[in-house]
Design goal:
single chain, mainly alpha, 9 helices
Length: 140
């Protein structure tokens, strides 16, 4: 950390003391900064949106969608509407939203006005044929 503050390694006691003073000045300058309400993102990231996106890109798919992680702390991937706009069929969008954005079947069923069992059938059909995104559907 001292090297970061000085812009070079603190090889001597004098440089270490200079770095210590620089750190104390840095802390003092941020004395009245409201870090938590102004900079905390998704309950766990202390940084700007670009930082959050970089950290989430490093996370594995499992970690991002793990049900033990509170929803507010999970990645903010594409919405169902994003997938519907991006993919050619509704069924492909449903599968992508479930697999990659970790949207629940219940959430999507409410949004689309379909039954959970219908969505379950679409996702299961796609799992049987991994190269396709599921049975084609013309209703959007």
């Amino acid at each position: 950390m001292w090297g970061y503050l000085l812009g070079k390694a603190a090889h001597t006691d004098a440089l270490a003391q200079k770095a210590g003073r620089a750190y104390a000045d840095l802390v003092a300058a941020g004395k009245d900064v409201a870090l938590w309400p102004d900079h905390l993102r998704q309950q766990m990231y202390l940084g700007d949106e670009a930082f959050v996106l970089r950290m989430q890109a490093l996370a594995s798919d499992r970690a991002v969608g793990d049900k033990e992680i509170p929803k507010a702390q999970r990645a903010s991937p594409k919405t169902l509407q994003d997938w519907l706009n991006e993919l050619p069929t509704r069924d492909e969008a449903i599968v992508a939203a479930h697999r990659h954005s970790h949207l629940s079947l219940s959430e999507m069923a409410r949004a689309l006005g379909l039954s959970v069992s219908r969505l379950s059938w679409i996702v299961a059909g796609a799992k049987q044929a991994p190269e396709s995104s599921g049975p084609a559907s013309t209703d959007r």
